UniProtKB/TrEMBL annotation:
One of its GO terms (biological process) is potassium ion transport. It comes from Streptomyces lincolnensis. Gene3D superfamilies: Regulator of K+ conductance, C-terminal domain (3.30.70.1450). GO terms for molecular function: monoatomic cation transmembrane transporter activity. This is Uncharacterized protein. It comes from the Bacteria. The lineage of its organism: Bacteria, Bacillati, Actinomycetota, Actinomycetes, Kitasatosporales. InterPro entries: AAE_transporter (IPR050144), KhtT (IPR026278), KhtT-like_N (IPR058776), RCK_C (IPR006037), RCK_C_sf (IPR036721).
Length: 151
């Protein structure tokens, strides 16, 4: 929408049409359309950027974490853990962390700059700024984050 912003459209599972216009000034307009006429707007609400942020917070689950990737009924979580440049593990081998042995957590990938390293081996050398993708129990992942935060 030239001069206004960007429009995002969504059709729900129940075939309801919604749109959000992200205005250049940070405001948002939330629109809902009549089911029988997809061009006939039934509701239009303009939100400030703060109101839009509050709406997003209300729609996310209370347990949401920006580093959380997924959870399953099996009690497993997958998270991103960033390795600090001042981490004790910066420059050390992955195997030296004893991550799987001590926490039960598996490091399934490492993101480094624009590269993804899947299934890193124990002889993989860690580097500050690496983002480790870990999978395990909630307790194990929390322990892994504590171990990796060591300076």
């Amino acid at each position: 929408m030239p001069g206004i912003g960007v429009r995002y459209d969504l059709t729900t599972r129940e075939r309801r049409r919604l749109s959000v216009v992200a205005h250049r000034d940070g405001a948002r307009t939330l629109n809902a359309y009549h089911g029988d006429d997809p061009d006939d707007c039934a509701l239009s609400v303009r939100l400030t950027s703060g109101e839009a942020a509050a709406l997003v917070d209300a729609m996310l689950p209370a347990h949401h974490s920006p580093s959380l990737l997924s959870t399953t009924e099996l009690g497993l979580v997958a998270e991103r853990i960033e390795l600090s440049a001042v981490s004790h593990w910066n420059g050390r081998l992955l195997g030296e962390t004893r991550m799987r042995t001590d926490t039960g957590v598996s490091i399934v990938a490492v993101l480094r700059r624009a590269e993804a390293i899947p299934s890193p081996r124990p002889d993989f050398r860690l580097s500050g700024g690496d983002i480790l993708i870990v999978i395990g129990t909630r307790e194990g992942v929390d322990t892994a984050a504590t171990i990796l935060a060591r300076e």
